[in-house]
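Notes taken during the Thursday session

The instructor put the following on the board and asked us to keep it in front of us for the whole hour. The protein is Lrp/AsnC family transcriptional regulator. We were told not to look anything up and to reason only from what is written here. First, the residues (152 in total):
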Amino acid sequence: MDSKDRQIIRALQCDGRMTNQDLAEAVNLSPSPCLRRVRNLEAQGVIQGYSAVVDAKSYGLPITVFVRIKLERHGEADVKNFERKMQLIDEVLECHVLTGAMDYQLRVLVPDLEAYEEFIRNRIHPVGGIASIDTSFVYGTVKRTAVFPAAR
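Then, after some discussion, the predicted structure tokens were revealed:
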């Protein structure tokens, strides 16, 4: 990947709906080579897809929760079980493996506190093998972006 590919990626991260003509102008390429580069980035799996950025509150999910989970055991079967079950829970938008005291951090969206309680009691507790759950509710967002920093 070269600097031109990175320019293309950043431009598409800012506006994934821009036309190839507009993209080519933004990165100083002619349309055909620009489109060829985009198709190559898609084929290589660098560009994995396109999606809409949606306001969660307007959608009806105003509460964002970060949930940190520590497992009781770290055997291969326990870890695979937990990770497989996280893939199946719609409220879990992200699940990250962590270093440090906790094993995982989830980003969860729910409509209200009652839904969060139901999520913990009926979706997380049945997973089993969980030693502890630490919850932080988001009450404001200072910055949110999907645009990667420019490469140096």
